[in-house]
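G.,

No rush on this.
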Amino acid sequence: MKKIRDILNCSPVVAAILANRNMLSESDILRFRNASLSNLRPPFSMKDMDVAVRRIYAAIKNNEKILIFGDYDADGVTATTVLLEFLRYTGADVSFYIPHRIKEGYSLQSGHISDYAVPNKIKLIITVDCGSKSHEAVKLAQDSGTDVIITDHHNISDGPPGAIAIVNPKRPDCDAGFNNLAGVGVAFFLLVCLRKYLREMNFWQNRSEPNLKNFCDLVAIGTVADVVPLVDENRILSKTGLEVISSGRRPGVNALIKACGISNNVVRTEDIAFRLGPRLNAAGRMGHAKTAVRLLTTDDAETAKQIARTLNQMNQKRQEIEKDMVEEILEYLKEYPHLLRQHSLVLSHPGWHEGVLGIVASKIVERYYRPVILISTRNGLGKGSGRSIPGIDLHAGLVACSDDLQFFGGHSMAAGLTIKADNVSQFQEHFETAVREASEPGDFLQTISIDYELDFDNISDELIDELESLAPYGEGNPEPLFIARNISVASSKIVGENHRRMTLRQQVSGRSTKAINAIHFNIDTDKGLRQHFDQMAFRLGWNRWNGRKTAQLIVEEI
């Protein structure tokens, strides 16, 4: 830690936090602290990147019809928008297509080729955030005279399709080292390479080169919403993107910020994760994801306001359905408690809304801390979504059960599947076996990692500013968690439905420290309000309100 303090001239608290995140070499420490676009590693070594760039350039030059085919989540929507806006700027003949989640399902399929691409004379399809398992669709496209470039970040378990280029950092023969990128990150790096190639071809002689930094707002939203690790390139792109969001240059994002009720237009990663991202996702879950693309691409503030309002309503409806499903599952598990003796939960129901399966699975994982797969069955077919816990690879579990499934895809923490309804019970057994064989008892013990024991007297404005410099926080770079002992409540009140706002003091060596404001979200008010805590785990930051900022603890565990 002394080495870190010497390099950064920082507090012992920040040095401990960086050491906990394995920031030990000088280059790692400086790269983490100075997360700017100039520190991005060149993406030109990604497998098939050169092939993809040359083919796109030929399509632009020859005015061929280009179709961007995206996924319906926030990652896919932002990736679609990034590519669409750049290619429109070049003058390309480009359009986009995102399938309907419920009516069409995930990724590029044969019907999209025969029913859309061929009739519309599409000569080049570029997938974003999908396509790595679309073997039949890619073959049909190639046989029909349509080239396919796949850009994706999902695992490839059964060999890549026969596309002319597959830009996916997770393909086994790609050693470029960008495995943590989201789909929008892969799309952004495609543009980095394409812009450079266009420069080499003297394409920008008659128009100015686009500033790719202006796309980083979308990259940040897609990256954070997809819960990929906020390290390396993802950290740089997200930090830059948050700055671009704050500049207010995109009407759609501005309108969504206002619709979310984010104050002072100061957007943080948690705002993307819990406010912006869910509303963009709501379009694909409750309606059609093209609504979200329309929001992100419009230049008209009034249009953006109307679409943002629509997404807000969709999200409210999603929350209602999600709440009912969670309550239904909790009641079911009370009735059949033996299911909780298993290492996993695979549940199915004919009436479940397919658009919220993943979110509900996440809620059940939070409560019971084991892999969860929820399947909605109708007309003999089931569509499912799963979520996992650290240490248990969900995608690997599905690979082990592939004979039971018609289709599956995803990564270690999240995946989707299609299955015949008659196969659900045997899949349930096989998946449980796969999880049991691949796990250790300790994998199911939920722990919290404390960064530092921090007494109230050591909390200062300077420390909070230092902590803010470590943002953006997210998967792979969690917000620092502190512990303090012997805490008393000087005053408190309930705000909202079940949040407790408090003024706290700490007893140290027989004396009381300075008071500090705190809030504890989502408490059970029926259990009574304690006035003293032997120990408390908390996060620390600024509470900004009406142009003022005050220090505040966010209580996590007591």
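When you get to it, here's the other one too:
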Amino acid sequence: MALSLGVDTGGTYTDAVLIRDERDVIASAKSLTTRADLAIGVGKAIKSVLAQADVSADQVTLASLSTTLATNALVEGQGGRVALIYIGFREQDLDKHGLSDALKGDPALVIAGGHSHAGSEKAPLDVAALEAFIDANSGISGYAVAAQFATRNPAHELEAARIITERTGVPVTCSHQLSAKLNGPKRAVTAVLNARLIGMIDRLIGRAQDTLVDLGITAPMMVVRGDGALMSAEQARERPIETILSGPAASIVGACWLTDTENALVSDIGGTTTDVALIKDGKPAIDPAGARVGGFRTMVEAVAMRTSGLGGDSQVHVVTEGLTGGVFLGPRRVVPVSLIASEAPDVVHGVLDAQLHSPTPGEHDARFARVVPGIPVDGVGEREAVLIERLGDRVVPLDQVLRTRMEHGALGRLVDRGIVQVSGVTPSDASHVLGRLDSWDRSAAEKALELFSRKRVGTGDRISATPQAMAQIIVDQLTEQTALTLLETAFAEEAEDFGVSPEQLARHVLLQKGLSNHRGLLALDASLNVDVVGLGASAPSYYPAVGERLRCNMILPEHAGVANAVGAVVGRVTFRRSGTVTSPSEGKYRVHLDSGPQDFTESDAALTLLETVLRQEAEGAAKAAGAADIRVLVERDIRTARIEARDVFVEGMLTVEASGRPRVAVG
């Protein structure tokens, strides 16, 4: 009997499942994600499923991990302090292509170097400037290196990486190792995000592996990529950017396995994000433009998915402008008041009671902060250091943490780094008040929503009369924002182009009236013309109302709450490697390899060499990940031009895919 263990580490919960012989889910469990030490939550979830199934740890033949932590980090702007080495580009390119946004104030160096489209050196690498920059910057957790046309010749990226490694020992991400496609600025963004995630994902995988060993599980550990395929833990540590959308991709794979659905939208609600993707002909589509998450378009192959900062733990913002007011949710995740109260009841209830006795609502009512132990604080500024000292190791009300307006920015930077967590009102708190959830401290949630309901709108009236009414407003807003996310995805995937952005179409007055079955001089009807598979622990609580709003069939499968952990172990190991042959002059065919360009006089010879190299790389990566029975597919895209009645070779792009099921351990 083969027993596969799937684990998903999310922003709020860590899920675990045991699947027997790749057919049946025999046990599932949830445990709170413990960010200070991820191994605690992982260990609790695994112990629980082993106990439920009444099996010993040594019977597990395969372990696989998916995680939303990389996705959540990019959505919330978190991660380590990085530096970008930008070779052969212009200084203004940093702002022009969104690199400044990706860097978030972290240092960057623009230096001479880089290559031409044909792979020849454009200018020598400015080594002196690079070494001076390295010596002048401390507290860097990872370097990103991007050189002009590095996919045509990576020599300068490799040399810069060598210098950085020798002088610092810090991990280095080279852009050409993440994608074989052109578009240097986009590769640079991808490299920056990869460098930012390295420390976080390395800690997660390391602690997960430690936990497996401590429990007596000797099976190999796999990690889910953003396209739903599997790779080894060691490969994930080197290229953590490939785990963005890992958890959501695992959910899509899990949804296909759980429902046998051929065509549907899959909507997975977690604590931090809602992820929506289309299943067509039984398979999730891959985004040809690269994964987009947290406002950044990357060059990472991933499931075509819309990720929004909307989840059960999204921060609730009260809107007091206008005559009626309202709320909106996200994109930042906060710790629910009901959860932090269950961990520090005396402090939280004491503060909430005092705020309820105040005659006027406060700006920071029902909000708290705490330092996350074990997170490196290297490189924080003076104001940030003051806040860390002020917090100490306690849960502190936010109005005691922030004493000046300038400290708001410092707190935001600490949250971005994952050093500090903020607590506030969330949909999870609203669900506790409405009796839909009973996991944490309902009394604290009621007090927090009473504080929110006292806020005044433009008429001077309270935004709601009771905590229960406030909770319903929050849940209704979650329904509305979820429906909009589904509509945006549907419009984005429509074969017909309506000439307007999906975001505008989803909010168009005629569509909204149609969904409400408008009857006047016009009869307007609209609905989502595809089933929706609702996933996530809170899906049964929230998604029936979403189905009603969109007038569609809502499927809530058994084990929907752990679909991501299911998908972690039912996928395949798959690796793709791509490369290019160009023709810089008539009769010359250049193969662009990591070792440098090689020229041939025949196109077939050049293409044959490229295919051989790519096949070796793809098969080697699949074998290194533990794949068995590997199948290889080769795709050629040869571009020619018609000149003087003959076809002339312009460029050839080859993609080799190697895939197989992971090899299970034999006891």
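DSSP finds 22 helices and 29 strands in the chain. The first strand starts at residue 3 and ends at 9.

Enjoy the weekend,
O.
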